[in-house]
């Protein structure tokens, strides 16, 4: 196990307070700490009980001895994915277990719970990283209760103020961040629960615009954006559109967005309360504003749900909007990108079509790929068709992405496709049930390569973990 080293804050104006055998350093008039924890899979070892690691057991936080001879379950329970703090805040993090649940405190006891999306949950699951009592160690201050720190009392994890058991508090609340007991997977590429990833290459970076998952009924109200130059390391750009304050006609069910660019503006198409809206910005990360003040495609406009937009722009600069659930629709967008001629909407015949149409073009061939079955089913998958025009007629070609139970991949779908710049290398972003314990509302996003046969047909995607 390796130990990560952390920069110590300046101590010139610090007050050193001797607490029994421990030394608690309190900075006066300075930022609380420069300590950080790298995101990704990590384990945390108690400073006071070397060899004991922060873990969960029966959905409660604890510390226990973990070693190379420990069971796979014990090592997994002592491994967390460190993610940027769910409630935000510079230098704040959250800890996700392998089953997708998060460490949070409730009534000061630290527990493992699913994200219910409430502001209280998000704050209770967010810890701000401070310097620990030993060199290179960290302490974790509650975001919701500043002044209380995560510590172990006997073997139980609590958040306590330093006054409690002052003699041992500093050491009991300090942890060495180590390499994970269970080696991290490459994926999900975006840490946390997200679905419906729309991937695009814009202005020299890859961007992913997903649905934020972990909410009953997919009831998240905010859209986020992530970007990367290498499809491996991703930057979280935070909320780019918040339905509550920024969209007058909908407050919930912020689903399945997509992005397009024209003449210096970005157009962000999104689902909200099962209508499709559009918001614009001069930056791919917003702020986005709603120029229409009403849906672009309102619920009830045609049969099926008016959801899952995608905009494809052809080589001649004409953009097309595709969408639908139960029925697949397409229409040419006007040059303003925020209107279309309703009389020109086409309905496509696509075998097994359920939702999430996505169109792209390679070597003069138009591909329309789409999701089949129900996103809550492990059998959710992606099929595709090809055509010689953006409106078809479409020739069904088969399945390109489906479950792989030997890898734990269930319900893969609602994908999008991007071409690496100046190449014939293609990537597919999609969601699957979070591994190992996710479901259709607790999904995670990954990216794999999309490979073509010489005749232009698509090879089945090989999921990599
Ligand atoms: O994320 C909510 C909905 O689930 C999407 O709109 C559908 O495509 C399905 O993935």
Automatic annotation (TrEMBL):
Keywords of this entry = Carbohydrate metabolism, Glycosidase, Hydrolase, Polysaccharide degradation, Signal, Xylan degradation
CDD domains recorded:
beta-trefoil_ABD_ABFB (cd23399), GH43_bXyl-like (cd09004)
Write down the Gene3D superfamilies for this protein, in alphabetical order.
2.80.10.50, Glycosyl hydrolase domain, family 43
Ranges in coiled-coil conformation: none
Which Pfam families does the UniProt record give? AbfB (PF05270), Glyco_hydro_43 (PF04616)
Q: GO biological process: what's one of them?
A: xylan catabolic process
Q: Does this entry carry the keyword Secreted?
A: no
Highest taxon listed in the record's lineage: Bacteria
Name the active site residues: 196, 355
Give the Alpha-L-arabinofuranosidase B arabinose-binding domain ranges. Answer: 43-177
Q: Which GO terms describe its molecular function?
A: alpha-L-arabinofuranosidase activity
Q: Where is the signal peptide?
A: 1-27
In chain numbering, where does the site feature Important for catalytic activity, responsible for pKa modulation of the active site Glu and correct orientation of both the proton donor and substrate fall? Answer: 308
Q: Which family does it belong to?
A: Belongs to the glycosyl hydrolase 43 family.
Q: What is this protein called?
A: Alpha-L-arabinofuranosidase B arabinose-binding domain-containing protein
